[in-house]
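[audit] Reproducing an earlier prediction to check determinism. Same input, same settings, fresh worker. If the tokens differ from the archived copy the diff job will pick it up downstream; this log only records the rerun itself.
[audit] input (275 residues):
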Amino acid sequence: MPESSSPEPSALCSTIAVAHSALGDRAQAESLAQSLGLTNLGVVRPRDVTDFPVLLFLDELGLGLQVTGKGAPGPVRAEFVTGKMGYRREHGGGAGQLVAKAVGLQKTRATLDVVDATAGLGQDAFVLASLGCRVTLFERNPVIHALLADGLARAAMNVDCAAIVERMRLLEGSSIEWLAQSEIEAADVVYLDPMFPHRDKSALVKKEMQVFRTIVGDDEDSGQLLASALEHARYRVVVKRPRKAPAIEGPEPTTRVEGKSSRYDVYSIRALPSR
């Protein structure tokens, strides 16, 4: 998922508010609204809200990004315990997964330090951490950062996920700034999944993904991020792209790992250690 652009506070305030259900955590909702500078609507039903197109909505299952209005789809969450990620954790194929191949886990027994510079909802970072990597995550969009922090907090309380989350460290701010202030070899692998401009509206058939894009926007500085990653990665940089999308502006990838709908552009700097 992308490290998205941080929207202007005024734009964010007119688009999104915080609310909770009767079973949601009131104190958490109040704290979240205050930290993001958003309106706190208190206890509401999303279908009854007309002033804001999107809510950060707390219910008994945690924090979700919820479209408002009648007939709206369910919330988007950072979910690691159940659903798709729960199934993937148990039956995902281990180091044979595409992201694991791209990072190089089949070629080394060493424990890799990975920086996920565009964490989004943290799914790829969680997969890498489940395979033994130590992962530092950055998500500069405050709304998506809040979703990810909530998902990791809930996963940390699950007996099957706690050890995985211990290998994940979520930091605030921009990964570009962090890399610029770091030593040259700040991580073994830097992983990028930038949001790129969609020209084809058919690629956004799901309404919830349209809302997600409305919140996060496009990554206009992906070329700068790639250049910085190449300067600070020890072994390789991995960039996730839609399968038919162009590569990020910059040097040509060393190799590619392709799937049905996406691919991973691999920029090798030096060989991974065998152990």
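[audit] rerun output stored. Observation attached for the diff report: The first strand starts at residue 16 and ends at 20.
[audit] end
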